[in-house]
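FIELD: query
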Amino acid sequence: MTEDNEPRKKRLSEGIEIILDEAKSAASQALSGAENIGESLKETLQGALSARNNVVMVRLNKESLIKLDDLVESGIVSSRSEAAAFLIGEGVKARSGLYDRISEKTAQIRKTKEELRDLLGGGDIDGAGSPTSKDEPGDDKP
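FIELD: result
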């Protein structure tokens, strides 16, 4: 009976070796993927934080503040300011299609305002340069 067990033990041993090799390969790929994610996050953070020349003060709800603090406490960023810049940058990227449409509409609004200024003789259409009564139609008095 021991002779019958030898081929079985050998197959079992080979099967275990194959499983171990597969597990090692999967673990190696997972570590490599984690390193890539880490590098990607670093690159994203560096991009979001590289050209921060403008200051914006904001009021946040408690949930948003907790998210900022989580980023700081985890060591991903070093301050609430960096966390806010990172999250805003990521939000803009995630909704880039929407912001492209907003930019198009804003450009149309600017163009229309400029056309109205030209129509009114260069007056400010936002209220300060409204036409006087002598410019109104139907008023022929000097």
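FIELD: remark
Residues 1-48 form one domain.
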